[in-house]
Amino acid sequence: MFRLRSSPAVMSVVAVTAAGVLLSGAQAQAEAQDPGSANGDPMVAALRRDLGATDPAALLAAERTAREVDRVARQALHRTFGGSWFDADREVLVVGVTDPSAAPAARAAGAEVRVVARAEEELGAVKAGLDRVAGWAPDGVPGWYVDVPGNVVVVKHRPEVNRQVRDWVARSGVDPGAVELVESRERARPLIDVVGGNRYWTSKYGCSVGFSVVGGFITAGHCGDVGETTTQPGGRFAGSSFPVDDMAFVRTDPGNTPIGAVNDYNGGRVAVAGSQEAPVGTSICRSGGTSGWHCGTIRSRNATVDYGPSIGKVYEAIETTACAEPGDSGGSAISGNQAQGVTSGGSGDCKGGAATTYFQPVPEILTRYGVTLVTSDGGTPPGGCGTAVTGNLQGTAVEPKSGYYEAPAGTHKACLTGPANTDFDLYLQKWDGSSWRTVASGTGPTSTEKVTYTGTSGRYRWQLRAYSGSGQYTLESTRP
C-alpha cells in the first residue's frame, strides 16, 4: 500500500543544533585560542543564517567524520547496506542494515545502526522502475526521489492527480509498498532567467560556473548546446546533455585560468579539495550569480525531477533544501570542501520560505567528459609551492612565526605536509581590524593540504591545526 505524508517541499527549513559533539583536544584548543576565525568564515555565517546552526564549526567537523564513516560502512556492508544519512540534531551518521547480523560491522565503522526493510540497491531498483515509465507520469508530478531515512521512494504530486499517480505507479510494476505518495505544489524550472555576478554568458543566457576542471569548467547542460560559445570566461561547450542529465563541459580559451575554489560572495573563496560524496542529511552550500551563497541540507542523492512536458526530466539528481534563483543555473554546490554538484533547477527562492534545489552530481560529469577537477592548489605539484619552513605541530601553530605578513592584492599559495597517520589542517586568515577571519582552508582527512587564495591587500597569516595526531610539519608558501 501507498503511504501519504506532507511534502518536505512545503515545510520550513529544519534548524540544526550542534550540541553534544566532542572536539578533539587539538581542535578544542584551536577554537579556544582563535574564536574569531570561525565567526568570520563565510560558510560558518551561512550555516548559521540558513540552517540555524548554533556551532557551525563543530557541525562541519562532525560532517567530515560522517563522510569517512559512510565510506567505510559501504565497503563493509555490501548488499546489506540500507543507505545512510546524517542526523543533524545529534550529529551522527545513521546506517541502515537489512540484516541485523551486519549491525556490528556498521557500528565498528563508527555509525549508529537502524534495521530497515530494503537495501539501497532495492530502493534504487524501485526508482529505476519508475524512471523507465517516466513518460507515462501524469502532469502534476514534479518528481520522485529515494528517501533513505524513510526507506522508500517518494513520489511528489499535486493533490488533484492523486488517483492518476496511483494508477501510474501500479502500471510501473514496482512494489507499491516501497512507494510513498507526498502531496506537493512544487513546480521546478531551470534557473536560467536572470544574470548576476560571477556568471558567464552565452548567446542566449547568463548562467553560473560550476567547478573548474583542467582545461575549462563544468556547468549545467541546459545552459548551452555543444559548439555554443561563452564569454566571461571565453570558451565553447565541448559537451552538453539535457534533459535526462543536466551537465556540460566548457573548454575555455587560452588566457583563462581555472582555480580550484568557489566564490563565497563575501569577498573571498572557498577552496575545493575533492569530490567525495556527502551523505544524506549533511549540509550543502551553493554559489550562483543571482542569489550568491546559500546553504541547506541534502534530502536525497537519487531524485528524479520533472521540469514539465515541454522540457523533460532529469534523473539521479541531488535534492536539497538549499535555495536558488534563476541565473544560478550551473553554479557550484559544495559540502565542506568537497564538490557535490552543479545547479540544475528548483522551486521557491531565497527571499524566505521553503525551497527545493536540484543538482547534477559532480563525479558523473567528470567521468562523462573525462575531465579532472581542479583542487585548491590549482594543480601545483608537491614541492612547488614556494619557500619552505618547518616546525612541530601540537594543537595549533601560526606561520610566519612572527605572527603575520603584509601582502598586496594577489594570490597566496601554500602546501602543508606532516607525518603519516595524522590529520593536519591548513587555514589562511586575514585580519579584519578586530579579529582573524578564515578566508581559505584545506581540511582533508590526511596531513597533506594545499590552498590557493586570491584576495585584496592586507595582513595575513597561515594557521595550522592538528585535527588528530602531532609531529613535524613542512609548510611551503608563496605570497603575492
UniProtKB/TrEMBL annotation:
Matches recorded under InterPro entries: Pept_S1_alpha_lytic, Pept_S1A_streptogrisin, Peptidase_S1_PA, Peptidase_S1_PA_chymotrypsin, Streptogrisin_prodomain, Trypsin_dom
Domain Peptidase S1A alpha-lytic prodomain: 121-175
Keyword Signal: yes
GO CC list: extracellular region
Protein name (record): Streptogrisin C
GO BP, one annotated term: proteolysis
GO MF annotations in UniProt: serine-type endopeptidase activity
Comp. bias intervals (Polar residues): 332-342
Family affiliation: Belongs to the peptidase S1 family.
Pfam families: Pro_Al_protease, Trypsin
Record flagged with keyword Lyase: no
Signal peptide region: 1-30
UniProt KW keywords: Disulfide bond, Hydrolase, Protease, Serine protease, Signal, Zymogen
Domain named Peptidase S1: residues: 218-365
Ranges where the record places region Disordered: 326-347
Source domain of life: Bacteria
